[in-house]
Design brief:
Strand content: under 5%
Structural class: mainly alpha
Largest sheet: none
Helix content: 55-70%
Number of helices: 11
Radius of gyration: 16 Å
Length: 188
Amino acid sequence: METTDILDFLRQKLKPKRLKHVLSVRDTAVSIAPQYGVDQQQIELAALLHDCAKWMTNGELLTTCQHHQIVPDLIEEQNPSLLHAKVGAILANDRFGIIDQSVLQAVSVHTTGMAKMSTLDKVLFVADYCEPNRSYPGIIEVRKLATVDLNRAALEVARQKLERQLVTKCMIHPQAVATFNDLLTQIS
C-alpha cells in the first residue's frame, strides 16, 4: 500500500485541522515506536488511518456499521462518533486493502483502548493523545512517559480520559475502563 494514496484520500476528506492532527500523530508515533520494537511501516499506516473515517456523519458511521454487521453498543448509539475508530478499520481494509490485523486492530481501538493491547496499539493510543497540537492538562507528563515507559504512558492516557469523562459527566465506555484496569494490572 502506497501511503501517497492514503494521504491523497485524507487531504480530500478531512478538514485541515484534522489532517494536521493525523500527520502529527504519524510523526509522534513514528518517533517513539523504534524504542519499543514497533515496525515503522505498521505504525505509520495505523497512524495515518486512525482518523480516516472522521469526515463521516453519525448517520454514515451507523450505516457503515450496519452494512458490516457491527452492532453498536448503548454508548456508541448515544455517541456515534466513537464508531469512527471501528469504521476507520473497515475503511482501511475496504478502501486501501489493508489486511494486516495488527494495523486494523490499532485503528479500531485507538479511542477507547482495550484490555491486552499490543505494543502497536499502545503506541497509537498514546501518540493520538499526546501529539504536539494537543493541549490537555497533564499532557506534558504523558509526553515524558511516552519516551521512557509506554505502559505508564498508556495508563496515564487512560486515566486522564476517564477523569475528563467523569468531570464532564459523559458516559464512559466499558472498554475504556477495561483498558485502565488492564494497564494498571500490568504495571503493578
